[in-house]
Amino acid sequence: MLLTGDLREYALAASVSRRFAAQRGLSSCQPVCRPTPVSGRPPPGQLRAQGHYRTVGIPLDALTGPGNLDRRARALRHAFFPAHAPPVVAAPTWPPGPLARAVFTAVSSDRPLVFAETATALREPAPEPGGHWVLADSRSPLAVVAAGYAAATGKRFAVVERGEHLGDWLRRVEHDSAILVAEHGVFGKPFLQELATSRQSPLAPGVMTAYSAARFSRLVWRLLAHRDFRAGGGRFGEPDRRPVPLRDTAPLEHYVLSGHGNELHVHHGDDEVVCGAFPVEERTGAPEGFDCERGCPYPGRIRGADVPVTTAVLLSCESATFGDGFAPRGHSVLLNLLDGWCTSVIAPYKHAMVTPELESLAEALVRGGYRLGEIAERLNSLVGPHGVPDAPFVLLGDPELVPATTPRVDSAVRLARQGNAVVVECRTAGSRVLDSVIPLDHLGPVTAVPRGLAVEPVSAELVSADVRFAFRSPPTADSVGVLVFGRTEFPAVPLRFRLRRAALPTVDELDRLRADLRAVADLSALGLDPAFLAAQTRGIADLLDPLLAYPRLPESILNHTLLRHYDALRDSVLRVARRAVLGQLREILGETALWISHRYAGSYGLTDRTRADDPLRPCPRCAASTSAWRYTGGCRGLAPRTVEVCPRCGIVADTPDPAALDVTFAGSGAFTDRTEHRRVTVRNLSTVRQDVSLFAQFTEWRAQGISVEPGIVDTHLGPGEETAFTFTFSCRDRPHDELASLHVFALTARFALSCFTQRVLVCQAGTPTRVGVPAGEDGPNGPSGPSGPRLGPVLPMVARPVEGAGAKRGSGGGEG
Q1: DSSP string, 500-530
Q2: What is the arithmetic mean of pLDDT over 140-144?
Q3: C-beta of residue 776 within 8 angstroms of C-beta of residue 786
Q4: How far apart are CA 480 and CA 474, in angstroms?
Q5: Which CATH number fits domain 591-813: 2.60.40.10, 3.10.20.30, 2.130.10.10, 3.40.30.10?
Q6: What is residue 456's predicted lDDT score, i.e. its pLDDT?
Q7: Which residues contact 189 (CB under 8 A, 6 or more apart)?
Q8: Is the peptide bond before 95 cis (omega within 30 degrees of 0)?
Q9: Measured CA angle at 584 (ends 578, 590), to 5 deg
């Protein structure tokens, strides 16, 4: 490390650093501007990095002795160049642009540099197409350091008149990669937006900047020192998990640093906060009194410069903010990272949709040997269902650098048509990423819009919940890109996946599901706990939303297989929710005499009420005349309901209006033993198929110690079909005598709740004789006698079809 004062000394040191290293047997030598009162002492993280590189600092004065610039330039020329040295490069002492051009010429051509006040600025050559470039703002002192970096890395170098013209140069000149160097204030949000969406080359352009030339020279020194460290076989570790404790970890080559934050702070892990506050001397222009370190509430605070990571992918919204942010100068988490150990960062300049899947993709690209420019380009080209990339990321660093141990090897891709699908075969050498670009003319009838495309695994190695894919927009408009990636390296064998038309739900299917979710929430009006119902709707949405949003960004490679069976999966998920709702009702019924009309009367309006002498139909329990109460849901739009009332049996049915189901009970005898069997018949009154879940139980069954088998049963009924179940009720102990109500609660697939009730006399002292029915004669609901109701043979504890005409042609199942 050749320590220099101002930029003119830096230029002299750069021109001889290569020869000085060769003469002294050093692995490398690069100049660094000494800290000044403004730039401050290097932070601890930077000093620790220098220690790992086994750095020795030598003042330039030790090589030249005292004197003016001319004398020192001659001393360096005589010390490091032979008598027949090539012609000198005459450099002006200022402005930065011509001085930078002279530095680049001297270093790249290995010629001595001298200063001349009358030196003519070297002519800026016309840019040739292609190549890797460093572009610098001619007005910025950072251009001088940028010229040294370009020469040291074998890149081309050019200066532009103003930093605002850097984007024009990118659009005008064909290039393989580009690094843009200017004062940090040049890179405002509009500039970064243009940069992130640039597709002029396969590598996303990089930005390099700092608060001062001295800090920038230290950043460039670390870039080159780490390059030489890697070339000599040195290497830092790789993270074995995420998150790692940044305060205590050993130096890392790369790390995906993800967490909520902004341009000033990034939360990381459970208790760490990466802070962007610079030392006080760098906070010029900050509002008086602004100091986030004073009274800092974060015990796990770590300054960005102390994070021991060489290359970081910073997944925190708006962290790439420079001159036009809200935080004042001297408060930037991104520039603070680059002021310490870190040399390169990929970060979003705006809000980004950061998910665990995106973190996995970033990790896979880094470990897969991609160059930084390729990583940024892949992340910026990801497309959602409608095919428009968001492009939120910018690269702070050199696009050509590879954070991983070995560069990636391009996947060998083969395509084969398989009906209306395309099978893609990739062969990769143990990478985590299968990277393919499929020409549109290979897709045939498969639409190229990502919303209409699906990816399915063919090879067994890809059938895993840890394997995901993402569509991306390649630079050419006649193709579509697919990234398939995992959490671990893929085996080095041919791996195949299928690209096909996505089987997406229709608009009508989505509308039906939304209506079902609203129906679940509306059950709160019938007395169920709103928090419980909200948990059910969340559970349904958590399972189905990932499929309905297919393909997400990124997406599970298994989800389209589930999506092709969406109807069955939806029915299964809704059946689980139906059973949960019925289970909640059963629990409520165990503690109280539950009449749901008493609970929803406050939410509904009673719009019609028939008189007892204006019968609707005979009571299905005792043949007495019934009346009905009709309710409507008012402004909430709740489904109308009808409560059917018998003057003798009380409420016998509480159903939606019109009713979709009817339930009848076989027999009406008393509960006279510790075990009783009740047969219940369910009939579909509607003109459509009904999926139904139901249970039967007594009011306050827990206090009576009554259990029932089966618990909750499911059945499927076509229009007009019916089926029967036998429920077996058992008592742990002898129940007390009571007039109880036996409820059957039934819930359809559309979450329409019905309740049917039968009054039952619990009499354990003997068998009562029904009032008005002599022993041995039939009552209106079946035979009765001294031994109680004759129910016929006891059915097993699973549902059986009703025998004879009108029996259900389907199946039913028990809870078990």
Answers
A1: EE--PPPHHHHHHHHHHHHHHHHGGGGT--H
A2: 95
A3: yes
A4: 6
A5: 2.60.40.10
A6: 93
A7: 321, 324, 349, 350
A8: yes
A9: 135
Q: Report helix, strand or coil for 497.
A: strand
User: What's the rounded Cα separation, in Å, for the pair 635 and 704?
Assistant: 40
pLDDT tens column, 230-278 = 988 899 999 988 899 998 899 999 999 999 999 999 999 888 999 998 8
Residue reference for tokens 């039968």: 758
Residue 91 · residue 35 · CB < 8 Å: no
What distance lies between CA 783 and its chain's CA centroid? 65
Contact 258, 286 (CB under 8 A): no
pLDDT in tens, 11-24: 999 999 999 988 88
The pLDDT, as a whole number, for residue 592 is: 83
Q: How many CB atoms lie within 10 A of CB 420?
A: 11
Helix (H, G, I), strand (E, B) or coil at 56: coil
What DSSP assignment string belongs to 235-303?
A: --B--SSSS--TTTPPPEEEEEEE-SB-SSEEEETTTEEEE-BPPGGG-TTPPTT--TTTT---TTEEE
Exposure on the CB side of residue 366, measured as CA atoms within 13 A: 24
**Neighbouring C-beta atoms of residue 437, cutoff 10 Å:** 14
Q: What is the DSSP letter of 464?
A: S
> Minimal CA–CA distance to 334: which of 403, 257, 280?
257
Q: Give percent above pLDDT 90 in the chain.
A: 44
How many whole angstroms separate alpha carbon 164 and alpha carbon 139? Answer: 11
Helix (H) or strand (E) holding 536: helix 530-548
User: Which amino acid is located at 283 in the chain?
Assistant: R
Sign of CA dihedral 13, 18, 20, 26: positive
pLDDT band, residue 504 (cuts 50/70/90) = confident
Quick check: helix, strand or coil at residue 712?
Answer: strand
Contact call for residues 606 and 630 (beta carbons, < 8 A): yes
pLDDT digits (tens, 9 = 90+) for 780-803: 333 333 333 333 333 232 333 333
Q: Is the pLDDT of residue 712 over 70?
A: yes
Nearest-CA neighbor of 555 among 718, 382, 410? 382
Beta bridge partner(s), residue 415: 424
- How far apart are the C-alpha atoms of 739 and 727, rounded to whole Å? 19
pTM comes to 0.80
Give strand pairing partners of 434: 484
- pLDDT, one tens digit per residue, over 386-441 is 778 889 999 999 999 999 987 787 778 898 888 878 899 998 877 899 999 888 77
Cα R_g (the chain), whole angstroms: 39
83 pLDDT exceeds 80?
no
Which amino acid is located at 75 in the chain?
A: A
- Amino acid at the residue 26: L
- Cis-peptide into 793, omega within 30 deg: no
With b meaning 16 or more CB within 10 Å and e meaning fewer, what string describes 244-254?
bebeeeeebbb
Rounded CA gap, 717 and 691, in Å? 6
Taking CA atoms, 541 is separated from 525, 536, 561, in Å, by: 21, 9, 18
Burial class (CB in 10 A: 0-12, 13-18, 19+), 707: middle
Quickly list DSSP for 387-400: S-B---EEEES-TT
Which amino acid is it at 665?
A: F
462 pLDDT exceeds 90? Answer: yes
Instruction: Put residue 369 in one of left, alpha, beta given phi > 0 → left and psi -120 to 50 → alpha.
Output: left
- With beta carbons less than 8 A apart as the criterion, state whether 709 and 765 touch: no
Say if residues 483 and 469 touch (Cβ distance below 8 Å). Answer: yes
The answer, yes or no, to whether residue 286 has pLDDT greater than 80, is no
User: In the prediction, which pLDDT does 418 show?
Assistant: 84
